[in-house]
Design brief:
The protein is of the alpha/beta class. The chain folds into four domains: 31-104, 2-Layer Sandwich (Alpha-Beta Plaits); 127-353 and 492-611, Rossmann fold, CATH 3.40.50.200; 357-482, Glucose Oxidase, domain 1 (3-Layer(bba) Sandwich), CATH 3.50.30; 659-763, Immunoglobulin-like. The protein contains 18 helices and 39 strands. The strands form ten sheets. It has a seven-stranded parallel sheet, with helices on both faces. The protein has a seven-stranded mixed sheet with strand order 18-17-23-19-20-21-22, with helices on both faces. Helix 9 packs parallel to helix 10 (308-318). 56% of the residues are buried. Belongs to the peptidase S8 family. Residues 657-752 form the Subtilisin-like protease fibronectin type-III domain. GO terms for molecular function: serine-type endopeptidase activity.
């Protein structure tokens, strides 16, 4: 899946007719378009829908045609509709003055026992964040994903009180899902949205594509995500005997509302369906939204309504709902980050301080520790071979008798899971006993019970190869995997985690934060091919996102009046720059390097410190409007989004002045001056002094250098003057700017690139 690496994505060609009664007629001529009208002009949803129908009726000429065409009416958080239209009909609608944009539908990809202890988030004491936030009991989190497997014990509602009276949502029944039975005081909402996908590509053959026409989760992705956010305590859980402990969500008392908008084992999500899910979630009364999905480069502008998730998130954030989303799984290449809008909290993935070493003992008594999720039993000494075609993806080209009854060594330069899958299939089909895969670090391990698939790096793989070539009868023994926790296991940004800078707005630092997203143990669907007793280990930024969503739930519980930007600031400015033990965080890729803000944003999320940040960089809708102006969004379009007349100021504001908890300057030539404002959320009478760690070759000056907060001075501004000593175009150099009162260290990352010659692509 896109944002989840454990599954291999396939091209989606067919879709189940779940909710839709749409009859596919002139499918060759009509496609799904989203007609975006901005802020709704009526509070009555029925009036909004009637307005949409009238607009279509004036174009199509009859109520029957309107009914046949319309897919969704967006009527809660904003106004618009999805409909099947010809290209000329879409063009006619786009010319109406009340229409902001008419855009084609978009498909998005879906991008444990140790996680919370590793992050220091334990409910053990009365001083812990989990305890003080009452485990998130007052908060409702909306999860837009592939649905839920409601029978999992992680959704039990023991000890829960009544559902909050403010909740307006519901549990929809459907195939193998009874809303009155499967929902409870914890799982309080469950809806599904497939009309956009069905209208886009037609019905699909249920015989070839297993799915449920209901909120029930088929492949387990959504179940894994929601149970990571708020699963109930469940002791004694392991995966193939590994990672044993008490499994729980970050906010185990939270209420969960599930919005199934992603379908089939490929994990594709229609933009029209996702937008409808966001619209419904806003109406239903969720407090936090979690989206483990995203798109790939090239991206639409974050202010472009063709980026449907970004637009829906804007309306959610404007209503005080934080939106947490995945960075994507296209790393380690630069500029691959998705979900780049500044109002979204974008999450990268790291490893835990946990690994699964697997002993490879060669015939010369040298033991190498690879990585695997291999339950055993141990494979005793067996023949070891490196076939003529040693490429992991070409093992099937070898004669079967060269691999039969042997353990096979192969090499691959690919970072995806595909070579491992190909190697396992080829060796198994040839009657082989196991495979050792030499590769760059990918953090993608395929679990197995009886067939070892062990990963090593190129250096260790070469050691094994030299051993094979040194003897006539090479042999190897492979032990069952073991669980190793804490030192000497290091924390790293995962190879697959998408990296910044943003390809469309490089002055907006992305990702914002990093969290564990490798081999996360959580609940899953029983249909999941990797399910063991209803649990699985999955990897991806999809798995890191719900970790941060759970923390956002706790912060929202503790500070219910904080804005989404204040919560983001608290998380970014208090993050670890090292792992919790104080060791440096590296970033895996073609070569391992120290992590920088384009790998992990502010750093590794630190939940306990985020609860008491001292100062926050706060923003309101008005600040995002100024950002839209800086991004050259037209006055008319901004007015439609806001539902009121808006004129951008002259001169145009600078994107560098957006009050983010970061400073990113992508095109510094001589000097630039920018402004930030901090709000005191700590002790009333506080004195903060600035500490500057400038990027290499860059001078940074801050005015003033001291802040004195009191009952009347709770919000203060400062200017930052940045100059460069470089005389050539450079890459990015990194530093930090910290406000400290000796109790709180409010740190923001500085990322600066000198560009003497602007808009220049340097390939030399």
């Amino acid at each position: 899946m896109g944002q989840t690496i454990i599954l291999v994505a396939i091209i989606l060609t067919v879709v189940m007719n779940a909710q839709s009664t749409f009859v596919v007629g002139d499918a060759a001529e009509r496609k799904v378009y989203v007609v975006y009208l901005g802020e709704k002009e009526h509070d009555d949803p029925a009036s909004v829908t009637e307005y949409h129908h009238q607009m279509l009726w004036s174009l199509l000429g009859s109520k029957e045609s309107v009914h046949d065409s319309i897919v969704y009416s967006y009527r809660h958080g904003f106004s618009g509709f999805a409909a099947k239209l010809t290209e000329s009909q879409a063009q006619q609608l786009s010319e109406l003055p009340e229409v902001v944009h008419v855009i084609p539908n978009t498909l998005y990809e879906l991008t444990t026992t140790r996680t919370w202890d590793y992050l220091g988030l334990s409910p053990g004491t009365s001083k812990s964040l989990v305890h003080k936030a009452d485990m998130g009991r007052k908060i409702i989190v909306g999860v837009i994903d592939t649905g839920v497997w409601p029978e999992s014990e992680m959704y039990n509602d023991k000890g829960y009180g009544p559902i909050p009276s403010r909740w307006k949502g519901s549990c929809e029944s459907g195939e193998l899902f009874n809303g009155s039975i499967h929902c409870n005081k914890k799982l309080i909402g469950a809806k599904y949205f497939v009309d956009g996908l069905v209208a886009e590509i037609g019905d699909f053959d249920r015989a070839e594509n297993a799915e449920y026409a209901s909120p029930r989760d088929f492949n387990g992705h959504g179940t894994h995500v929601s149970s990571t956010i708020g699963g109930s305590f469940l002791p004694g859980v392991s995966y193939l005997g590994l990672g044993r402990g008490t499994v729980k969500g970050g906010a185990p008392g939270v209420r969960l509302a599930i919005y199934k908008a992603c379908w089939l084992q490929s994990g594709s999500c229609s933009g029209a369906d996702v937008l409808k899910a966001i619209d419904e979630a806003i109406h239903d009364g969720v407090d936090v939204l979690s989206l483990s999905l995203g798109s790939k480069v090239p991206l639409y502008s974050e202010t472009d309504v063709r980026e449907l998730t970004s637009v829906g998130a804007f309306h959610a954030v404007a209503k005080g709902i934080p939106v947490v989303a995945a960075a994507g799984n296209d790393g380690p290449s630069a500029q691959t980050i998705s979900n780049v809008a500044p109002w979204i909290l974008t999450v990268a993935a790291t490893t835990l301080d946990r690994s699964f070493p697997t002993a490879i003992t060669l015939g010369n008594n040298i033991t190498i520790l690879g990585q695997a999720i291999f339950a055993g039993p141990e494979l005793g000494y067996s023949d070891l071979t490196y076939p003529q075609s040693g490429d992991c993806q070409k093992l099937s080209a070898n004669p079967n008798n060269t691999m039969e009854g042997k353990v096979v060594l192969c090499f691959t330069r690919e970072t995806s899971v595909t070579p491992a899958v190909d190697a396992i299939i080829a060796v198994r089909n040839a009657g082989g006993l196991g495979v050792i895969i030499a590769r760059n670090p990918t953090h993608l391990l395929l679990p197995s019970r009886n067939f070892p698939s062990v990963a090593v790096d190129f250096e260790l793989g070469t050691d094994i190869l030299f051993y094979i070539r040194s003897t006539r009868s090479p042999i190897v023994k492979i032990g069952a995997s073991r669980t190793l926790v804490a030192r000497p296991v290091a924390t790293k940004v995962a190879t697959f985690s998408s990296r910044g800078p943003s390809s469309i707005s490089p002055a907006i630092l992305k990702p914002d934060i990093a969290a564990p997203g490798v081999n996360i143990l959580a609940a899953t669907s029983l249909n999941d091919s990797f399910s063991v007793n209803g649990f699985s280990m999955k990897s991806g930024t999809s798995m890191a996102t719900p970790v941060v969503s759970g923390i956002v739930v706790l912060l929202k519980s503790l500070h219910p009046h904080w804005s989404p930007s204040a919560i983001k600031s608290a998380i970014v400015t208090t993050a670890w720059k090292t792992d919790p033990s104080g060791e440096p965080i590296f970033a895996d890729g073609s070569s391992r390097k120290l992590a920088d803000p384009f790998d992990y944003g502010g750093g590794l999320v630190n939940p306990e410190r985020a609860a008491k940040p001292g100062l926050v960089y706060d923003m309101a809708t008005h600040d995002y409007v100024l950002y839209l102006c800086a991004a050259d969004y037209s006055d008319m379009s901004i007015s439609r989004v806001l539902g009121k007349a808006t004129v951008c100021p002259t001169p145009k504001p600078s994107v560098l002045d957006l009050n983010l908890p970061s400073i990113t300057i992508p095109n510094l030539r001589d000097e630039v001056t920018l402004t930030r404002t901090v709000t005191n959320v700590g002790p009333l009478n506080s004195v903060y002094k600035v500490v500057i760690n400038p990027p290499t070759g860059v001078n940074v000056g801050v005015t003033p250098t001291t802040f004195v907060f009191n009952s009347t001075a709770t919000k203060l501004s400062f200017t930052v003057r940045v100059t460069t000593t470089h005389r050539v175009n450079t890459g990015y150099f990194f530093g930090s700017l910290t406000w400290s009162d000796n109790m709180h260290n409010v740190a923001i990352p500085l990322s600066v690139r000198t560009q003497i010659l602007p808009r220049y692509y340097d390939e030399n």
